[in-house]
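Dear support,

Our group has been running a series of protein-ligand predictions, and this particular one with guanosine-5'-triphosphate is the one our PI (initials K.S.) wants archived with full inputs and outputs. We had some confusion internally about which version of the output was final, so please treat the block below as the authoritative record. The input we submitted was:
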Amino acid sequence: MCSSTNKSAATRVLFSGTETGQHFKIDSIRNYGIQIKSQKKKKNDKHKVIIVGLDNAGKTTILYQFLMNEVVHTSPTIGSNVEEIVVKNTHFLMWDIGGQESLRSSWNTYYSNTEFIILVVDSIDRERLAITKEELYRMLAHEDLRKAAVLIFANKQDMKGCMTAAEISKYLTLSSIKDHPWHIQSCCALTGEGLCQGLEWMTSRIGVR
Ligand SMILES: Nc1nc2c(ncn2[C@@H]2O[C@H](COP(=O)(O)OP(=O)(O)OP(=O)(O)O)[C@@H](O)[C@H]2O)c(=O)[nH]1
Ligand SMILES: [Mg+2]
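Confirmed final output from the archive:
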């Protein structure tokens, strides 16, 4: 998915601080077990990421696209999935958390030491964008997420009539967020389109603060 260096100019402007034309690759501990084993990262060398968003947004689909470059069959997540994703020697420990209403009150049990929040939005689900907004601002106000950077994926861009990333950004009033670095990226988890750009933004943030 991310091994290609052929990014269009239009795509390049969506993220900042990353070199264009550089070889970009995602490995997974499953696919490259031996290589990773020899590198044996300490827990502290891994960057903790939480993947949140309402149920059916596509969080689990995104996690396994990152890991395997494949669309997996999902069912609603009860609790969480955790996987290690390696991007250009940067190790991310990604927690995909179930988004059903009854589970949202326990999202905060995952917050400590989180460096990145990936908020996944179902771009066709206009009715529930207000709930996503509430959840976003609740998270940003939480002490444990004070230092976290936020990547918003405007997912399901393949759906006819979906909201664009710009519309979602406006609705979520992202430009008002001054105390967390943020970035919005349109994507389609089924094809993988846009996912690499999101990861590149995350890697570009490492070491910035
Ligand atoms: N059309 C389309 N469908 C998608 C896309 N991403 C995910 N889906 C579908 O959306 C449904 C829900 O995806 P999940 O990844 O299970 O959603 P989730 O956010 O993990 O949901 P919870 O675990 O309940 O919080 C599945 O049928 C996916 O195949 C996308 O980009 N486009
Ligand atoms: Mg899920």
